[in-house]
Amino acid sequence: MKAEEKILTNLAELTAWQADGLPIEEMAKRLAISPATLGRIAKKNTQIGAVLSGAAQRARNAEMSDVCMGLCRKCTGYDKTVVKYYKVKRPLMQADGIPVLDDAKKQIMIEELERVEEIQHIPPDLDAIKFFLMNQDKDTWQIDPERIRQDAHKQETTAEENNPPTPSLEALLMANEA
Length: 178
Fold this sequence. Notes:
By secondary structure, the chain is an alpha+beta fold. The protein is about 60% helix and about 15% strand. It contains 8 helices and 2 strands, in the order αααααββααα. The N and C termini lie far apart (about 105 Å).
């Protein structure tokens, strides 16, 4: 059976796989063809291409959603569980719960590592906030609005200094007479 015939006979399954969010590579594997062959046939056959383009678009949307959620978490801060290990000294105990003593009648201590999970707060990242605001509200959140105004004023002043106004004919005649 040719690859295109195999795809067309399994088009219902292909559509269901696409709806389930299966990547194109996995669809090709289930059809026992290479992803390149599936892509080549999808370019030729518009019906197959429509099914696969929907899968690709949904994958791109899912990736974009993940990136946006990650940026949002960086902007607002979040809590993260961190595993730490601490060295703890404990008295060595007998089976009946009595501590074991050495020759000098001191309690024998043993060292153990104790696993502890702590919740650590990751604060908001100022660079992420700056990036977000500069892309979402460009008019309000410019790089430095005051500096931009100062630079514009400086350029106007420099332009005036470099191009002084031309004197009038009367001013030139008066300067020649003096």
